[in-house]
Design a protein that fits this description.
alpha+beta
């Protein structure tokens, strides 16, 4: 017969595991929400708020650009492209053990404002099929993000941008 003390400890331990698992799921959702917020800020050309999503010491590749350089690059790019939309499937997010860091991979395209691609929205939860359809319609990019948690916020420490080079990225 198992004692009540053991059952209580086991219940507390299982609850702690469940809460840890929920925390990781919540962190994954929080990172995806931060990515969605960042995409909207980019569409609105809101450089200041977009840069507020970066951590101290932020760097972007290629080129190992710091925050000030990225601001200037974004200003020029936004001026050049004008109004646009950013489309992407569900980002792949991995939360580090201990939940102090995370990484995310976002495949995306930039298209003129209100340009619709039939069937693309329905593939949000199927990134592979999304990429297949989207690659026929626009140039694709891959953004790799390394994130840190500062207090209760996820912030980007490192961003690496690559053009689509085929299915191997």
């Amino acid at each position: 017969m198992i004692g009540n003390g053991f059952k209580s400890c086991l219940a507390v331990w299982l609850l702690a595991l469940a809460l840890a698992g929920c925390g990781e799921k919540d962190d994954t959702q929080a990172v995806r929400a931060m990515i969605q917020k960042g995409a909207k800020m980019a569409e609105q050309h809101d450089i200041g708020d977009l840069m507020d999503l970066t951590a101290k010491g932020f760097a972007a590749d290629p080129g190992n650009h710091g925050a000030a350089e990225v601001r200037a690059i974004l200003f020029s790019a936004f001026r050049h492209y004008g109004e646009f939309d950013i489309r992407y499937p569900r980002p792949a997010v991995t939360v580090a053990e201990g939940r102090s860091g995370a990484s995310a991979v976002v495949h995306f395209m930039i298209v003129r404002r209100d340009y619709e691609i039939p069937g693309l929205k329905e593939l949000y939860d199927d990134p592979q099929r999304w990429l297949e359809l989207a690659s026929e319609k626009a140039d694709l990019y891959q953004l790799k993000l390394e994130l840190v948690r500062e207090e209760s916020r996820w912030l980007v420490r490192q961003a690496t941008l690559e053009g689509f080079k085929g299915w191997g990225f």
